[in-house]
Amino acid sequence: MSYNPSLISPSPRDDPEGGSFLVETSGGGDDSNVLGGDSLVTGPLGAVLLVMCLPGMVGNIYTVAVASGRVAGCSAGSLGVYMINLALAGLLYLSTIPFVVCTYSAHDWLFRDVGCRLLLSLDLFTMHASIFLLTAMSLERYWVVAKPLRARRASNTY
């Protein structure tokens, strides 16, 4: 088997036609994309996201305030702790929505590489934290229903 350099694809910056792969073209001649330009989706999408964000933030802050008052005042058990952590995960996720709305409005990412990494990390962290907390709550509720006397003795030990 011999080496044939014509079988190797060109590097991303080299175009066999003499152009550049870095130039972005839409193919049809117009500068609009799915969510860009004068799209009918951009405005309503931003409004819906903000409408979801504001009541969600208020609800999660209220949940943290009420649940932390119960936990501090008396022993509310692990369910109260789960609820506080789930509300905090929700708050972290909802804090990323304004960045998404800003991106849709500006049609560009304005927050550099650090913002991209931070937003993606928060998104993944809150998703996994919520899944973990809901699983832990479900397992604890199952344990209380399936073995109520044993669960009662175990809850009194801490």
UniProtKB/TrEMBL annotation:
Pfam families: 7tm_1
CC terms in the record's Gene Ontology section: plasma membrane
Keyword rRNA processing: no
Transmembrane as UniProt keyword: yes
Region feature (Disordered): 1-23
GO MF annotations, alphabetized: urotensin II receptor activity
Domain G-protein coupled receptors family 1 profile positions: 59-158
An example Gene Ontology biological process: neuropeptide signaling pathway
Keywords assigned by UniProt, alphabetized: Cell membrane, G-protein coupled receptor, Membrane, Receptor, Transducer, Transmembrane, Transmembrane helix
SUPFAM superfamilies linked to this entry: Family A G protein-coupled receptor-like
Gene3D superfamilies documented for this protein: Rhodopsin 7-helix transmembrane proteins (1.20.1070.10)
Transmembrane segments: 45-67, 79-106, 118-143
Locations listed in the record: Cell membrane
InterPro entries reported in the protein's UniProt record: GPCR_Rhodpsn, GPCR_Rhodpsn_7TM
PANTHER family in alphabetical order: G-PROTEIN COUPLED RECEPTOR, G-PROTEIN COUPLED RECEPTORS FAMILY 1 PROFILE DOMAIN-CONTAINING PROTEIN
Family listed: Belongs to the G-protein coupled receptor 1 family.
Protein name listed in UniProt: G-protein coupled receptors family 1 profile domain-containing protein
Organism annotation: Zosterops borbonicus
